[in-house]
């Protein structure tokens, strides 16, 4: 903003901000549903109140021009949102001064420069101009001494590899965009090994006296704080602004009424303003003002992020704070319209498994590692040890046990491994712990290359179903051990779901009439066919029926049951008979986070618009695809974070604002051994990168 007017910034200077100014950033991205537009106004720490007000006004005007389709953000220097930081891959540079003091965005080939930049951050890098003095330095960060024709990168002794490489990317970016590629870069990784560069630094900064300071860790919001979401209704009454709390987590979409405006407070970490379609123009205009007023009333820091959202154009970040988000009357595929709030029945789509290798994105979408044609070995945990299971009974799992399933398949001519840890609902804590410990031992035997998947009874992933070729039977309780302590029930009822060998399982349900469902096939001493089941489902049910019992089973159609059928179930009772609709969970965008648990607080940093480059060797990263949680473990990650990885994933699910299912499968992936259903979430994955 120059003299209260919007002036375009030259593209070469994108990512460089004067501390005395305000900026407006427009970001447009093509999506499967058109385009997503984000408008940010950025406030420098030395900018005037007038400029800040003008910036907010321009953003509102731009939003009107864009017919209310943009998501608006207020960004404060040093506290930018992860979305904003994702636009500047090489980092953000803060410069002293501004337009008012005669500063212009740097012209290329300017060499009469002498400045010191303090580079911070590992995933999101920012560089702040600091005083040219040894007092500005510390042991844990990267510093760039910029002398025009020479750039010296000084790495603190406690810097990580990732921080050093991000610092170098920033130095190269300055050389190429501001110096036309004509500057030299020197690196000091260890002062003793770089006497010549140290000499130049001493000439500029003088001799160093005293010890270097320790780095000050960034104050970041932990996941517990972010999980504390509260929704407020905001309205005016007799010229007074009224803010009334409506609900706390888990929030549901129906709380948002189209004629009102709401503030969603994410634990003081971020404030969202949602503007209903039918709310008044005055209310819409006042969104930012109200959010700033709310921040002041709550005593939050003035740097708190604000995001203003329009009804129908919600950002992915906002939707993920709700338990379930459905697009109203969204037509999917061939013109089917799904309504909300019905019981979910996932349409079983047949897909060609031979395409998985050629199209890893399909592997990710279908959650399939391969075509399930590999080898299986199964062990039961007995007396805390691994006991091999008879191959004739592969696919039969009992709720009182824990099992290890090792799946081996070939890729590019060499074996790859997936190790499933299946935890029965009634297994003891000791057995569940022993299952995890035995999994580590089994993984070691296979060169630490296995992908480990925690499977909770009832939440079996697609690939797990596929490897048992339609013969997966889950018994509610009991055990498959030779000496069973409890007698088996006389009457058992199984619900069978699936249309082919790749997606079928039979699950034991309480032997009562209320367990029936018209959409499925059930197995008693009869095969009960619900009105809504398909021919494919009936065929698969016949196959499963033979596994459960070899006796002949009569087929009964719904509505033609003999009296003894109801007797076996303890009498007739109401059951689910409505046609099942597919719940349309809006395109959940996968999210990548860096996990850190070192400080005793669980902190996650999101990487927006992620790619393979964002996986650093010294990281533990979490990829959330909603139906599964992947943990990617870098080769050089520290032991503490590696050991805490599974606990971190459980913590993530527990503290997720949307109230997530704690039984979501957790998949441990090691650097260099990534399966297709992981790499498929990344654009242009390079298998030879490491």
UniProtKB/TrEMBL annotation:
Family: Belongs to the villin/gelsolin family.
Cellular compartments per GO CC: actin cytoskeleton; cytoplasm
GO-annotated biological processes: actin filament severing; actin polymerization or depolymerization; barbed-end actin filament capping
Identification of the protein by name: Villin-1
Chief location: cytoplasm
Keywords for this protein: Actin capping, Actin-binding, Calcium, Cytoplasm, Cytoskeleton, Repeat
Entry keyword annotation includes Cytoplasm: yes
Cell location: Cytoplasm, Cytoskeleton
Domain Gelsolin-like residues, every copy: 4-84, 125-197, 244-319, 386-465, 602-678
Record's keyword annotation contains Kinase: no
Coiled-coil residue spans: none
Any GO MF annotation of the entry: phosphatidylinositol-4,5-bisphosphate binding
Entry-linked Pfam families: Gelsolin
Top-rank taxon: Eukaryota
């Amino acid at each position: 903003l120059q003299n209260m007017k919007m002036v375009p910034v030259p593209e070469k200077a994108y990512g460089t901000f004067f501390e005395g100014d305000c900026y407006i950033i427009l970001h447009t991205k093509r999506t499967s549903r058109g385009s997503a537009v984000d408008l940010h106004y950025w406030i420098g720490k030395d900018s005037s109140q007038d400029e800040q007000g003008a910036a907010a006004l321009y953003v509102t005007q731009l939003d009107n021009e864009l017919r209310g389709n943009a998501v608006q953000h207020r960004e404060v220097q040093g506290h930018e949102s992860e979305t904003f930081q994702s636009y500047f891959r090489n980092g953000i540079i803060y410069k002293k001064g501004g337009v008012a003091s005669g500063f212009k965005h740097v012209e290329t080939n300017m060499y009469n420069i002498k400045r010191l930049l303090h580079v911070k951050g590992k995933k999101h890098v920012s560089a702040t101009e600091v005083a040219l003095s040894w007092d500005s330095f510390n042991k844990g960060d990267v510093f760039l001494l910029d002398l025009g024709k020479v750039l010296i990168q000084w790495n603190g002794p406690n810097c990580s590899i990732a921080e050093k490489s991000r610092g170098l990317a920033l130095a190269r970016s300055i050389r190429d965009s501001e110096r036309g590629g004509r500057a030299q870069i020197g690196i000091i990784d260890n002062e003793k090994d770089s006497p010549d560069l140290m000499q130049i630094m001493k000439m500029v900064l003088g001799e160093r006296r005293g010890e270097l300071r320790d780095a000050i860790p960034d104050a970041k919001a932990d996941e517990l704080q972010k999980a504390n979401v509260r929704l407020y209704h905001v309205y005016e009454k007799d010229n007074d602004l009224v803010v009334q709390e409506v609900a706390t987590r888990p929030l549901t979409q129906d709380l948002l009424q189209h004629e009102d405006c709401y503030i969603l407070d994410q634990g003081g970490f971020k404030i969202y303003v949602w503007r209903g379609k039918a709310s008044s123009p005055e209310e819409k205009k006042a969104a930012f003002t109200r959010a700033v007023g709310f921040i002041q009333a709550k005593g939050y820091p003035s740097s708190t992020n604000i995001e203003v959202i329009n009804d129908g154009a919600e950002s992915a970040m906002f939707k993920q704070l709700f338990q379930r988000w459905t697009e109203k009357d969204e037509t999917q595929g061939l013109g089917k319209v799904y309504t909300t709030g019905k019981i979910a029945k996932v349409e079983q789509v047949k897909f060609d498994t031979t395409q998985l290798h050629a199209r890893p994105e399909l592997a990710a979408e279908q959650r399939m590692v391969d075509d399930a044609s590999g080898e299986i070995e199964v062990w039961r945990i007995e007396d805390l040890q691994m006991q091999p299971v008879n191959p004739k009974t592969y696919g039969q799992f009992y709720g009182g046990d824990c099992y290890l399933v090792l799946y081996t398949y070939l890729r590019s001519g060499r074996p790859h491994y997936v190790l499933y840890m299946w935890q029965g609902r009634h297994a003891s804590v000791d057995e569940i712990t022993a299952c995890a410990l035995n999994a580590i031992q089994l993984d070691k035997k296979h060169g630490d290359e296995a992908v480990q998947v925690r499977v909770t009874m009832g939440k079996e992933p697609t690939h797990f179903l596929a490897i048992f070729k339609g013969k997966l039977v889950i018994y509610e309780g009991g055990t498959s051990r030779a000496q069973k302590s409890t007698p088996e029930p006389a009457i058992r009822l199984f619900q069978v779901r699936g249309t082919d060998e790749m997606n079928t399982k039979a699950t034991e349900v309480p032997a009562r009439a209320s367990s029936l469902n018209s959409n499925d096939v059930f197995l008693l001493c009869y095969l009960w066919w619900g009105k809504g089941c398909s021919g494919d489902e009936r065929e698969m049910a016949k196959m499963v029926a033979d596994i459960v019992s070899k006796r002949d089973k009569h087929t009964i159609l719904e509505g033609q049951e003999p009296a003894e059928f109801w007797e076996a179930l303890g009498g007739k009772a109401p059951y689910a008979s409505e046609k099942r609709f597919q719940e349309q969970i809006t395109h959940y965008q996968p999210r990548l986070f860096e996990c850190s648990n070192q400080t005793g607080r669980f902190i996650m940093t999101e990487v927006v618009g992620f790619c393979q480059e964002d996986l650093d060797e010294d990281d533990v990263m979490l990829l959330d695809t909603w139906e599964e949680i992947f943990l990617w473990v870098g080769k050089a990650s520290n032991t503490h974070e590696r050991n805490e990885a599974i606990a971190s994933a459980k913590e993530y699910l527990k503290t997720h604002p949307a109230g997530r299912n704690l039984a979501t499968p957790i998949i441990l992936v090691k650097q260099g051994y990534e399966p297709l259903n992981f790499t498929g979430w990344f654009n242009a994955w390079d298998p030879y990168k490491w």
